[in-house]
Amino acid sequence: MLYIGLMSGTSLDGVDGALLDASGEQLRSLGDAHVPFPAQLRQDLMALQAAGHNEIEREALAANQVVRLYAQCVAQLLAQAGIGADAVAAIGAHGQTIRHRPELGFTRQLNNPALLAELTGIDVVADLRSRDVAAGGQGAPLVPAFHQAIFNQPGQTRVLANIGGISNISVLHADGAVAGFDTGPGNALMDGWVLQHMGQHYDKDGAWAASGSVHAGLLAAMLAEPYFALPAPKSTGRDLFHADWLLAKLAAFPAIAPADVQATLTELTAASLAQAILRDGAGAQTVYVCGGGAHNASLMQRLAQAMPGKTVTSTEALGVAPGQVEALAFAWLAWRFTQRKPGNLPAVTGARGLRILGALYPH
Questions:
Q1: Exposed, middle or buried: residue 184 (CB in 10 Å: 0-12, 13-18, 19+)?
Q2: Parallel, antiparallel, or unpaired for β 2-8 and 88-101?
Q3: N or C, which terminus of the chain has less Cβ within 10 Å?
C-alpha cells in the first residue's frame, strides 16, 4: 500500500516526488524528494509550450529526459525510506503539461510512462487528466479530491490554496461539499520576469518584489483579463498566462521599473487568489497555502493583507509540508486507480460524472 507521486508543474523548476502510505485509515507521507531540471531542459520545455519546428521529435526527446529525472527522484525516495522497488504498488506520474485546451477536448502532458516503468521496475499510472476531459471536464484541478481526503474537517470550512506556476483553490465546505478551480497565475509570471531581469529562477522570499511598488494601472489592466470573471468550472495555464500576455499589458505602461513590475505581478497573484477565496470560501477562517508560493514571504503577506480577518498559513499547520502536497496528490490518484475508484470531482472539473483516472503501464 505504498505509492509514489511525481509532479513537475508549470513552474518548470524540476520534479517533486513523495511517498504515500495508504495502508491505514489516515493517509501518511513517508518522505519527499526534489530533482531540479537542468537549464537547457527548462528552456526546451518552455519552447514546447508553443507551436514550433519539429516539435514531435523535440517533445519525445524532452519526455525521455524528464522521465530519467523522474526515475532519479524515485531512486532517492526508495533510498531515503530504505525500501526496494517491490515495496511500491505504483507510481502516479503526472508528466509535464505543454498544452492544456479542455475547451478543444484535449490536454497534453509530456511523458514516457513505459520508459519510467522500465527504469524503476514499478507499475506506472499516467495520463491522469485525459479521462476527465473526455467526460466533458476541465481535467483540472485534480488536487481538490485529495485535499478532501486528507484535509477535510467535518463541520468546518477550509480553503486550500495551491500556488505553483498556476494557482488553484479547494474549498472544503463544512457540509462536505467541495469546490475548486484555477484562480490564475501563481509563480509563472513572477519567475519569468525575475529570470529575465535578475538571472534568477525565482524571487527568493519575494525580496525583489518587496523592493518595488505596485503599479495600480498595470494591476487593473491585468485583473481586467476576462478569465478572472469566468464562473467555475475553469482551468488555465501557460496557454493564457505567458510572457507575451504580460508584454501586451506592459505596452500601455512602458516606463515602469522592473522591480515595480515584479511587485505588481506578486500583487496580481495575491489579488486574484483573494478575490476567488472571498467569493467562494467566505466561510473559512483560515487559508492553508501549499506549493512553492508558500515560501514567498512577500506573496504570503500580500495575500493576508487582501483578506482581513482570515489567517493565512501553510499546510505545515495541518501536518503536511507545502512542497509535498501536490506530489502526494498524484500518489493518491495512483492508489485510487489501483483500487478502481474515481479520482475526479465532477463539481470541480465539470465532468459528466465520476471517472477512474489514468492508464496503467505495468513494469
A1: buried
A2: parallel
A3: N
Which tens digits make up the pLDDT trace of 90-111?
Answer: 999 999 999 999 999 999 999 9
- Give the pLDDT of residue 11: 85
The pLDDT score that the predictor gives to residue 10 is: 86
Are 2-139+324-361 and 143-318 in the same CATH fold? yes
Task: Please tell me the total number of residues recorded for the chain in this structure.
Answer: 363
User: Contact 100/61 with Cβ under 8 angstroms?
Assistant: no
CB-side exposure of 317: number of CA atoms within 13 Å?
13
**CA 296/CA 202 separation, integer angstroms:** 10
State the Cα angle at 36 between 73 and 129, rounded to 5°: 65
Output the DSSP codes for 14-47.
EEEEEEEE-SSSS-EEEEEEEEEPPHHHHHHHHH
Low-confidence ranges of the chain (pLDDT < 50): none
Structural domain boundaries in the chain: 2-139+324-361, 143-318
- H/E stretch holding 107 reads strand 106-110
193, 246 Cβ separation under 8 angstroms: yes
Determine if residue 340 is left, alpha or beta; phi over 0 gives left, psi from -120 to 50 gives alpha, anything else beta. left
Task: Domain 2-139+324-361: give its CATH code.
Answer: 3.30.420.40
Identify any residues that bridge with 297 across adjacent strands, giving them in sequence order: none
CA distance 174 to 168: 19
> Cα-atom radius of gyration of the chain, to the nearest Å?
19
Look at phi and psi of residue 326 and say left if phi exceeds 0, alpha if psi is from -120 to 50, else beta.
Answer: alpha
Q: pTM, whole model, 2 decimals?
A: 0.95
**pLDDT score of 9:** 87
Contacts of 349 (CB under 8 A, 6+ apart): 132, 137, 138, 139, 140, 141, 142, 233, 235
